Amino acid sequence: MTRSGFFWRLALSIVIDIADFTFGRIPIFGTVTDGIGTVVLWALWGPAGLVNAWELVDFTDQADGFIPTATLIALYVGWRNGIFGGSSRDVTPTNQDAP
Question: Out of 8, 51, 55, 71, which residue is the most buried by the measure of CB atoms under 10 Å away?
């Protein structure tokens, strides 16, 4: 994953959290969007995205919107891949990095 690819995925994760905070408070709609969000995050971030499934536990859909789970997952994956400072393990080099 390139750095720009990571930041596009991070931006999408932030949008998912904002939607969960606003529209996710509608009782049944919120549960459906939590399930869809989990599938999308799994596609974006791999198995770490399944952590978002904890939001399905809150059947009232009121409390889970205040915890930015999608953003935290993105930041965790970025940290594990070395995106933030230091050397990164899984970042694809660009033409600028070639000798």
Answer: 55
The string of pLDDT tens digits covering residues 29-72 is 888 989 999 999 999 999 999 999 998 888 888 888 888 999 99
User: Residue 73 in contact with residue 79, Cβ under 8 Å?
Assistant: no
CB-based contacts of 87, cutoff 8 Å, min separation 6 = none
Distance in angstroms (rounded) separating the CA atoms of residues 73 and 65: 15
In order, the DSSP letters of 3-71 are: HHHHHHHHHHHHHHHHHHHHGGGSHHHHHHHHHHHHHHHHHHHGGGGGGGGGGGG-TTSSSGGGS-HHH
Overall size of the chain counted in residues:
99
